Amino acid sequence: MTQPKVLISDKMDPKAAQIFRDRGVHVDEITGKTPEELKAIIGEYDGLAIRSSTKVTKQILEAATNLKVVGRAGIGVDNVDIPAASAKGVVVMNTPFGNSITTAEHAIALMFALARQLPEADASTQAGKWEKNRFMGVEVTGKTLGLIGAGNIGSIVASRALGLRMKVVAFDPFLTPERAVELGIEKVELDELLRRADFITLHTPLTDQTRNILSRENLAKTKKGVRIVNCARGGLIDEAALKDGLDSGHIAGAALDVFETEPAKDSPLFGTPNFISTPHLGASTSEAQVNVAIQVAEQLSDFLLLGGITNALNVPSLSAEEAPRLKPYMALAEKLGSLVGQLTTGTIPRISIHAEGAASELNTKPMVAAVLAGFLREQSDTVNMVNAPFLAKERGIEVREVRTEKEGDYHTLLRVSVKTSAGERSVAGTLFSNAEPRLVELFGIKVEAELAGHMMYIVNEDAPGFIGRIGTLLGENGINIGTFNLGRRDAGGEAVLLLSVDSPVPAGVIDQASKLPGVKLVRPLKF
Ligand SMILES: NC(=O)C1=CN([C@@H]2O[C@H](COP(=O)(O)OP(=O)(O)OC[C@H]3O[C@@H](n4cnc5c(N)ncnc54)[C@H](O)[C@@H]3O)[C@@H](O)[C@H]2O)C=CC1
Ligand SMILES: O=C(O)C(=O)COP(=O)(O)O
């Protein structure tokens, strides 16, 4: 295996580079590149480790000809074009918990800074003014905190706020009533939160649903004297409307760690009384940066060296421990998918993957992705486990997954069935000696074959003399037969023949074979 190469393109704790080196991954740290400069070098790398500064756009991905994985040392991945990465088969991972406490603490810090006007009081005092009567704050005790988003960070903010004796209400469509009770908070609709909250903090990702969630219209619905903290993403608040609300006095204070355009070197909000800002520092503590650096380096190394997938946003997880056990199953799954893909034509409305016996006890999600990758390989050269499920969806293929713990004839079995216009057709395979993929059933006929290299699939009438004729034809054309696998529905009925051959079979030979007496179908196969 050639040594994988990773580029760290944003400032990261040195522990990340150390881990890559210790694990045998080549690492370059090149930060502060423009998109054009990044485009020029990205083609060399198998992995890219980023924070929020690097924008992994479609154009960057197009130039990333070797890229297999992007690792975000942090949480938000709105700087990565995930659909484009998925379409290219690039895994995108983040480190979902490493900086959550730190970011929650920053939100609480900003809430206090607003409540007591700390930055302005500090500037005035250090300017020698001693304006004791100018700064009159508010207590947070007994006040209502409105959380928009109650996931990891929002929940930590809630627990800290409850400790400060605040009342916490939350708007989060995905928050279950049980979880709200567990957190000791009240789940409310957005309008009610806006009406009741003395402080509002935001903790959602930036998505099409959350963009501009504090719009001008929604800001107008807030309680007079509200104080707002955004440590999540710029784009969640209408910045111009926020400025107007601060100027009119309806909003008593606002603290932004994040801005619609970053780096925010200029903003109409700058200099507004009761406005506080920090330069996207939510995750910037030494503890959090060490956490996310270690996690991202371990995750990328596991993926590039062992095939382990952790915290991926566009592909099912597969731990580094599971990966070696699943590897032969993935190979089997991909071969079965490929066989079905090569032997079926026309539109396929449904594909079902059935895991039986030992296979059913494993993580079948990656096997399903491998079947789809094999199946779609006929249609696209760039398909892999990451983009296959997306391609299948795009093509309107329904994917079903079935598990049966009970063993059948085999200790472990994978069956791939497709719905075609001619009805349901299925192939099945097992693992010999627990690692070698073998086909054991082909469209209802028992066979036993290794699916490898160049092969020929022949359906013929089960009659004497056929095997000799096909052997002669291939021999006359200089094609050496490697293995020969026969199966039949019943004596004298339909038989199938799977041949492995040492070289590709030219179209002319396929044509001659299909004209041999009794032959119904001949197809070349490649694995
Ligand atoms: N300022 C900074 O340096 C940092 C900012 N962040 C930001 O904080 C965000 C939240 O992080 P986590 O809590 O870890 O994420 P999370 O995924 O655990 O929680 C997000 C919550 O938002 C909720 N949500 C989704 N759509 C919503 C909607 N339309 N309305 C209301 N709620 C909605 C989800 O149900 C979920 O509970 C990240 O996406 C990131 O953008 C994260 C770390 C550092
Ligand atoms: O983790 C996140 O979502 C953050 O926003 C942190 O961003 P950063 O890594 O500090 O640029």
Automatic annotation (TrEMBL):
Keywords: Amino-acid biosynthesis, NAD, Oxidoreductase, Serine biosynthesis
CDD domains the record matches: ACT_3PGDH-xct, PGDH_4
Pathway: Amino-acid biosynthesis; L-serine biosynthesis; L-serine from 3-phospho-D-glycerate: step 1/3
Domain D-3-phosphoglycerate dehydrogenase ASB span(s) in chain numbering: 325-442
Gene3D superfamilies hit by this protein: 3.30.70.260, D-3-phosphoglycerate dehydrogenase, domain 3 (3.30.1330.90), NAD(P)-binding Rossmann-like Domain (3.40.50.720)
D-isomer specific 2-hydroxyacid dehydrogenase catalytic domain segment(s): 6-313
EC numbers on record: 1.1.1.95
GO molecular function: NAD binding; phosphoglycerate dehydrogenase activity
Domain D-isomer specific 2-hydroxyacid dehydrogenase NAD-binding: from-to ranges: 108-282
GO annotation, biological process: L-serine biosynthetic process
UniProt-listed InterPro entries: ACT-like_dom_sf, ACT_dom, ASB_dom_sf, D-isomer_2_OHA_DH_cat_dom, D-isomer_DH_CS, D-isomer_DH_NAD-bd, NAD(P)-bd_dom_sf, PGDH
Catalysed reactions listed for this entry: (R)-2-hydroxyglutarate + NAD(+) = 2-oxoglutarate + NADH + H(+); (2R)-3-phosphoglycerate + NAD(+) = 3-phosphooxypyruvate + NADH + H(+)
Biological role: Catalyzes the reversible oxidation of 3-phospho-D-glycerate to 3-phosphonooxypyruvate, the first step of the phosphorylated L-serine biosynthesis pathway. Also catalyzes the reversible oxidation of 2-hydroxyglutarate to 2-oxoglutarate.
NCBIfam families given in the database record: PGDH
Homology family: Belongs to the D-isomer specific 2-hydroxyacid dehydrogenase family.
Name of this chain's protein: D-3-phosphoglycerate dehydrogenase
